[in-house]
Write a structure and sequence with these properties.
heterodimer; A: alpha+beta; five-stranded mixed β-sheet; 22 strands; B: mainly beta; 3 helices
Chain lengths: 685, 152
Amino acid sequence: MNQYLEVFIEESKEHLQACNDNLLELEKSPDNMNIINEIFRSAHTLKGMSATMGYDDLAKLTHQMENVLDAIRHHTISVSPELLDVVFQAVDDLEAMVNSIAEGGDGKRDVSSIVEKLKMIEAGNTELLKSEKEVAAAIATELKPAVHIDYDEFERTLIEESHEQGFTTYEVYVALRDDCLLKAARVYMIFEILEKQGEIIKSLPSVDQLEEEQFDKDFTITLISKENSSDIEKKVQNVSEVETVRVTDVSSSKVVSKLEVTMNDRNKHETEEVSVPKMENNEKDKSKQPEPDQNKTGTAGKAASKTIRVNIERLDILLNLFEELVIDRGRLEQIASELRNQELQETVDRISRNTGDLQNIILNMRMVPIETVFNRFPRMVRQLARDLDKKINLEIIGAETELDRTVIDEIGDPLVHLIRNSIDHGIETPAVRKANGKNVDGTVTLKAYHSGNHVFIEIEDDGAGINRDKVLQIALKNGIVTEQVAATLSNKQVYELIFASGFSTAEKISDISGRGVGLDVVKNTIENLGGHVSVDSVPGKGSIFSIQLPLTLSIISVMLVEIQMEKYAVPLSSIIETAIIKKDEILHAHNQKVIDFRGKIVPLLYLKDLFEVPVVKEESEFVSIVIIRKGEKMAGLVVDSFIGQQEVVLKSFGNYLTNVFAIPGATILGDGQVALIIDCNALLK
Amino acid sequence: MSEIVSKDIKLIIFQLNGKEYGISVHYVHGIEKVQHITRIPGTAPFVKGVINLRGVVTPIIDLRKRFGIEECEYTDVTRIIIVALDDIEVGLVVDAANDVIDITEDIIEPSPDLVGVEEDEYVKGVVKVSNRLLIIIDLYKILDREKLKVEG
């Protein structure tokens, strides 16, 4: 069951995402039937899945949503922003329910109000959306049928759909003989026969009651089938101990007449329905065997590549095992070079090559397209634009760019923050834009691409840009810079000030951004991921935020250095250069030792002192220096010697030792020893 | 010595400064010989550093220092007891560890007032087996992360 639940949650999320995406598309082109069909398909699958899994509220709401979509499909109601708001709200509710299920909840939620809203839309009462629950109630009662077989909305929709596809609905009345002994067995046989003819959607009394023989001698089954009534009758009659069989075609009679009331004349359009025959076929298949077909329909539109779902935990275990292998490889290489046995050396070389390939494959498997983060932004932007009364186009470029799963998990919040920032502070109101001769619609571009061992994400807006004077004013007021320093700063340096802690450019505190939490949080998060963020801006033209991130977090390239008897690893991503200088080249400025590095004054950090390394060796005449950088800041780390460059596996200290200053973790070297990894960002604070 | 099945516990016995201590085998993941310990700067004094325990970087606590007893040189019999508590796994350096005994839980007595040494607060109780007095340590207190912050 658990395994099914996992699949259910994953697929539900996918379908909801598809709904979200397509709804946004739909808003742009309300007449595009293909989009509606896509949404309908997602909703339909979701409904089927949740009903199967027993999540009634989920099924109920999806069902109602489906009805509305169906009405749109049949041109009974037209797409309006208000309508989409409600549908979006429904999708939000669905998401909340699925999330609750994913977190181990029961997925229950009060959906009655949203269901009512949807019903009102379905009934064509879009104008009345905001109030009048009585109307909804009235409609609800109107919907209640009063015939001897009651069909609920589910079944009515089903009947209507199958009718469209050329199926006929029959009510099969069966009476068993009075002396029938094994009634349940007969029922079973009849059901088996009928199931071969079509699909049983209802029985009176219910199947359970029939199986427990809780009925007198007759019962009625509603069947959707393509067979004609006399054939069905004959086949059922063949079952022994059956007294009477009566098959009535009900599709054209009372059910449909009832449907016509329900669906608000939707059926009138039935005959015009030619544009979506393909879709109908899918529907038919699905209703027969919901499970295996979902994948097919879900991916039909996209490139068909075969995939399997693997739990991320398993990939983590695989990576851990592989890391062990990398360590052993290091050890083997060392042993081989010591023994100088040619055969051994060759074997080790081959292992090295293969593990190298394996590393690429494993790391690639953990790569997730950034789409998984990006795809929630269109919704967010739409909502923000509506809240702020701005018109905004969001352009997404490079959503297929891949990043390590661990990075993906962390990057969402900072991006949300930056996008909100662009929309709230960057893009002007339509009136202002018009006055400035700009396109009324603002554009926010979200772009991701690979370059070297890094992924770059850019958020660009064509808004007002950053106001240098305003930034300086605030920075001065909040004591972030002094007046003297302020005068010497370049534009870009001034813009970077908005990342300083305690800075917020929002004049009024809005919901969207600037609730005391500034961009410094964004900067910190990104730097903790081993990346960095910068900003540039042209007044009146817009701003661009650039984020640079490492491809992966677990295997990193480092420079191994030695300080006395201890070994440390400095991530290459922080290193600009290494240098060996004579002691007398070290200069003194105030209490700080500095060097002149390519015309720049770079302060020196003695790791020996900082890390209180026990001194056992004499210092030599020369000093080895690793020049590190964080943003504009630079420093020279003074070490005893360089060992070399190496790919290492980053390992944490576990849950006991957390927050060790400047040392986020360690790595295991080829000889089995542990070397500490230095966090250069912490050293440059 | 083992009596009834129900409340039997196995104790790993280790020596520290001439006294015998016990820790339930339940917490113990293994006993290792001393290997190279990589020092971590800027941590509490009793944190000796980390070792490579079959690929896992494991923090090491010197129990002598943790208990406020003077340190001594590591010898051939010095051992690292790997213990796990909830989500924490660490190694404890002890003078020696060479015995396992079975006791029943009910013979554990609350700790008498040992002479006011710092280790006092890490004692869960004492057990008398034959002529030996075993001090049962309280791992929760020893591995209290708050202690790490204050001193670190």
